[in-house]
Amino acid sequence: MSTPAAPANLMEAIVSLAKRRGFIYPSSEIYGGLNGFFDYGPLGAELKKNIRDCWWNDLVRRRDDIVGLESSIIMHPKVWEASGHVAGFTDPLVDCKVSKQRYRADQLFFAAVVVDGRTIGHVSALESEDTAGELQAAAEALKRKLAVQGALAPVAPRDLTQAAPEEIALIPSPATGEPGSLTAPRSFNMMFQTNVGAMTDASSVAYLRPETAQGMFVDFKNVTDTTRVKLPFGIAQIGKSFRNEITPRNFIFRSREFEQMEMEYFIHEDADWARCHREWIDWCRNWLVSIGLPESHLSLYTHPKEKLAFYSKGTVDIMFRYPFGVQELWGIAARGNYDLGQHAAASGKPQELFDEATKKKFVPHVIEPAVGVDRILLAVLCAGYAEEDVTDEKGHVEKRTVLRFSPRIAPVKVAVLPLLKNKEALTQRARELHTKLKRRYAVQYDDGGAIGKRYRRQDEAGTPWCVTIDFETVEKDGTFTLRDRDTMQQKRITEAELFALLDEQVY
Ligand code: ATP
């Protein structure tokens, strides 16, 4: 008996559980933390690895048309000139000269406060789920404060990139509430710079990669020359990327060091790119469902044509309904042959394939699905978290917190629990089973405390099944109790049945 529910402040609950149970810690916490950086604890590291492994297995190992790659994080600086990142990988930055706070101009909204057709001042608010509502409330407050009579017009929010130069001085800083301290937006390059070698001059400047994708383009010829790939084919990579985000926020959703899973799917220049693009959108969406994300939380956003880069044929984002709003999880872009073309021009090395049919060389086009591992991990935490009232056999109602992870990605697949800690026959059999299971699966042995407490511990870790070794196991037929995390139902099963269940559900 249970009534699943997400608490009102789901993000707070998740951040707290993530810390308490060892999923995610702030980085360098004993030194006060470092904004935009995180550490994954024992359960988090397993969960993240499982997400990566599922993606890699499904995409690279289980398909015949995609190969893997692991390119270096620091690449030749010319890579980032050719890709356009040195000139254009920027966000608009606004400073508050008084508070020293920095904002992304496209996340800082403002509106004129108009009463009976007359502007009496301006209000501002940081982007939120209800920016317009916040601005309207601020406008009403300003009207009251200035004791102005008349009808307040509905606010018309714009972001700071849309402000006229003369308007900037009139917009209050969100930090101080007063106008006059915001600067005009300027471009801020998000690449982290470093120096390679002993010299720290302009000649040694290099960058931590802001995306893994360029590795696939730069190694395109290496892969085609050393493997037997034939169009259409993909090159996939998982790895860390770094962006000096102006405002890292929403826990691990937008951080400065994160992990990407990207794939470049190369197709003939004359191929039906739109169909291929659609197929990859479907593949990505189905894959998210296969690791346990509910369809109801997913939606598609098609980038408007006028906002696309000139070379882009189309971009669709798979959006996820996070507690802080519907946000981009996975971008699937049709990039034409821009990237290979840029690297061919900048390096002087042609990036072409030979078409046997037409006897002509051509530069392949590409479809790029790019997703962040951390954003998927946050999505599975958000979708899986529930607090429930449960009634035990004695009729007592208590709360349980549960993470309903798919068995594919759950950090621990099975917990092995001897009913009693001090009965050697039970603990010996439990140890034996634990040893056997851990050859293939991540499993936990737990003999501490009442069995109900141990179930709760595993519920919070998202463990799909607990097996209990009791007297029936050792004295009768050898079966154990299998307890299901979601239904909390128990049934007796044999060891062979347990392995068959795991084999079917954990892949
Ligand atoms: P956003 O608009 O949210 O900044 P983006 O469009 O710049 O993202 P891409 O460059 O397309 O993102 O990167 C591909 C994927 O990498 C994103 O869909 C997202 O899942 C992930 N990602 C990008 N930036 C971050 C970040 N700062 N922290 C965590 N994940 C990120």
Describe the structure.
- The chain is an alpha+beta fold and 507 residues long.
- The protein folds into three domains: 68-86 and 193-373, Bira Bifunctional Protein, Domain 2 (BirA Bifunctional Protein, domain 2, 2-Layer Sandwich); 90-188, no CATH class; 412-505, Anticodon-binding domain (Rossmann fold).
- It is built from 15 helices and 26 strands.
- Strands 3-12-13-19-16-15-14 form a seven-stranded mixed β-sheet. Strands 23-22-24-25-26 form a five-stranded mixed β-sheet, sandwiched between helices.
- β22 (414-418), α12 (424-438) and β23 (443-445) form a beta-alpha-beta unit.
- The mean pLDDT is 95.
- The structure holds adenosine-5'-triphosphate (ATP).
- Adenosine-5'-triphosphate binds at residues 211, 243, 245, 254-255, 258, 260, 328-331, 370-372, 374-375.
CATH uppermost class of the largest domain: Alpha Beta
By CATH, the topology of the largest domain is: BirA Bifunctional Protein, domain 2
Low-confidence stretches: none
Small molecules held by this entry: adenosine-5'-triphosphate
How do the strands of the widest beta sheet line up side by side?
Answer: 3-12-13-19-16-15-14
Overall radius of gyration: 27 Å
Strand content: 25-35%
Number of domains: 3
Cα distance, first to last residue? 30 Å
What is the CATH superfamily label of the largest domain? Bira Bifunctional Protein, Domain 2
Per DSSP, the total helix count is 15
